[in-house]
Amino acid sequence: MKRDSIEWLACMLLGSLGLVWALWVVPYIPMQDGPHHVLAAHIENHYSDPGAVYPDYYRVLPQLTAKGFSLIFGPLESLMPWRLALRLTLSVAALGFAWGFALVVLALDRERRPFALLGFVIALPWTLYMGMFPFFVGSALGLYTLAFVLRRPPDTNPRRALLALLLLLQGICHVFTALLVGVVAAVVMLANVPKGQRLRELGSLTLIGAPTAGLLSLAFWGTHAGNNDQQLTTQVLPAGRLSELSRWFVPGPDLRAWLVIALMLVGIVATLARGRRRTTASEQSLAWLGVGFVALSLAAPLHIRGWQFFAPRFVPVALVLGLALLRAPERLAPLAKRALAPLLALCALGSSWVSAGLHRELARGCADQLAAIDASPLYRGAWFKVVIDPFCGAPRDAARSPIPHAALAANLPLLSHVDHGGIEPTLFNGSPFVHAIELRADAPVPPAPDGLMVSLAQSPWFSAHQEFRRSVLTGLAADGMPFAGIHLVGGRPDDAAVFAERGYVTDFSRGSSLIAHFEGCAAELQLPPNALNQGVNVYYEYGLLTSKGITPELRTLAKKLLPRATPAGNDALHIPLTERPCGQLWLRVVWDSDGSFTYSPGDRTCANSNREGRLFATVTPEQGTVRCAP
Fold first, then answer.
1. CA distance 481 to 474
2. What is d(CA 272, CA 265) in angstroms, rounded to the nearest whole number?
3. 395 contact partners, CB below 8 Å, separation of at least 6
4. Which of 460, 308, 328 is nearest to 397 (CA)?
5. Average pLDDT, the chain
6. What are the residues whose beta carbons fall under 8 Å from the beta carbon of 213, sequence distance 6 or more?
7. Is 328 helix (H, G, I), strand (E, B) or coil?
8. Chunked in runs of 10, what are the mean pLDDT values of the chain (630 residues)?
9. What is the pLDDT of residues 290-331, one digit of tens each?
């Protein structure tokens, strides 16, 4: 092996060590959707374990794509703790991305190989921090397919069959990444055949892409877009997008991001400027494709119906194509050329140092939520996740955040279920061929709350007005009562008092994180012994009372008809309030004269009620009786 090759390889190994160090500098790097994938893979691994409750709650799906993460993480997690398995998985994927980029560079021209070290700068993309793990793994695998095509465009049937297989394998990891690489491969292959043979080559390409196209069709078949939070196509004005665009390319400080973008644009523009006579057909096609993917990043919708963050998914391909086209100036002195690889290795190490600092900052910001993962109680049944502030102290404004749109703490409670059991009702569920599991229709979980209170908790008024905050927290307490417990993310330390007042017992509380379960109060409604002997139906309803009304009507916890055969004691009818409410309540007992099961003129209510028929009381563990006389 030549000396310069040894030096280059040493630089690549040094870049690899820096990249892995950046990933291991903290025990866990908060990543938005990552906990979904970790928990889903954990459930798959332990679905059939003796005594496992997962079959009672979840159904295994015939997942055909988006398996890139679970194919690596799943086997590792079955052998070791999930944190170690996750770190190894992300290290393999990031190193795979960096070395795959190096192969793309070498496939274009071995003289470009110093620039292969830039792969370590872009190996921790925005999609990784957003927790798009299958997309990230699929993107890394696609670089090897692209290198295969660039090394020598497939011109024989065995090589075409191998390309079809590579695209299909990538499609299993994530089908959209296979679509992107397939487009690049098709353009490169068409550019390298004579014009008269392009129609025939197009036919060959159709056959090559058919298996992946079939997989893409299956991914959309049976998709439940209504189950997705993203129901509208969303576009962002150019000015707004430009304010955050740099960190789509490289998350973290703007300076690093804009330097990388500048290098990408230099690679594209310089290749186009040299023209066809001084570049290959493959280089010209990659340059124009780079222009196209940059344009899509700028102009495509931010979200499309059923799929969030559409435009940023074109960024990794644009980066790879632009940076791979970089080459040293022809008149550069031999000594300077030799120094280029060590210099870029230092740049890669500097980038890893910056990324490590970012990871420490993210972990510090999410420290309360990360502590809750370890301190969680033994979970049973379905838990209610309440996310008030998911940004871990980072700016909410995407234009100022180091990772635009990243709600890094939004799904951290899911990791508690990996270590401590319990059921998460909101795991990804959109298509039976894209996701691994789904909640069974007959799963014994409470109905999902309507989301109103969570929306109000994320509004500006929630932080600004204390009485409004207490009222919303009371509404969240009511939402969480049927669940095994509640996990609050991004709250305040004094929020725990509101939940305690409403019958919750705190299992863990630290700063902005609260874990509690509902025990409630032994409350009862007390009526006179003859209350049901009035010749009309009697029903009662009640709910938690707040000092500031936030809905047009007071929210009802329960509304029940009293059977006329309800036995009475010696002195009264004792009706247990089975939801076990605590704190300030409103309650209405109605002697329903018209049988409408609604309070209307002519109906009678408690003598001590207001004009709307409601009476008010405070229930505590020591005093749980609410008395009513008609």
1. 11
2. 11
3. 401
4. 460
5. 91
6. none
7. coil
8. 86 97 97 95 93 91 93 96 97 98 96 95 97 97 97 91 96 96 96 89 93 88 55 63 91 96 97 90 96 94 86 96 93 86 96 98 95 80 92 88 94 92 82 88 88 88 91 94 94 95 94 95 92 88 85 87 82 91 94 90 90 92 89
9. 999 999 999 999 888 878 899 999 999 999 999 999 999 888
CA 253 to chain centre: 23
267 is written with which tokens? 């690679």
What's the token pair of residue 449?
A: 């709350």
226, 382 Cβ separation under 8 angstroms: no
Q: Could you give the CA distance from residue 434 to residue 512 in angstroms, rounded to a whole number? A: 34
Measured CA to CA, the distance from residue 575 to residue 264 in angstroms comes to 72
3-state DSSP assignment of residue 504:
strand
Q: Which two tokens stand for residue 167?
A: 């695209």
Amino acid symbol at 493:
P
> Comparing C-alpha atoms, which of 419, 442, 444, 428 is closest to residue 61?
428
Q: CA-CA distances (angstroms) from residue 325 to 250, 293, 537?
A: 18, 15, 81
Which one-letter amino acid corresponds to residue 541?
E
141, 173 Cβ separation under 8 angstroms: yes
pLDDT value at residue 232:
59
Distance (Å, rounded) from C-alpha 316 to C-alpha 460? 35
Please check whether residue 18 is in contact with residue 353, taking contact to mean a CB–CB distance below 8 angstroms: yes
Prediction pTM value: 0.92
Identify the pLDDT of residue 230: 46
C-alpha of 521 from chain center: 36
d(CA 9, CA 7): 5
Q: Which amino acid is at 251?
A: P
**Strand 524-527 and strand 625-627: pairing?**
parallel
| Tens-place pLDDT, residues 122-161 | 999 999 999 999 999 999 999 999 999 999 888 899 999 9
CA dist 405 → 225, 236, 245, 410 (Å): 21, 13, 11, 11
Give the C-alpha separation, 529 to 573, whole Å: 5
Q: Which helix (H) or strand (E) holds 464?
A: helix 460-464
| Nearest by Cα to 501 from 521, 482, 522, 527 | 521
Helix (H) or strand (E) holding 59: strand 58-60
Sheet arrangement for strand 573-576: 573-576, 524-527, 625-627
Quote the CA–CA distance of 582 and 293 in Å, as a whole number. Answer: 57
Which contacts of 457-466 are long-range, i.e. CB under 8 A and separated by 24 or more positions? 457/386, 457/388, 458/387, 458/388, 458/389, 462/388
Q: What type of residue is 337?
A: K
Residue pair 503/520 in contact (Cβ under 8 Å)? The answer is: yes
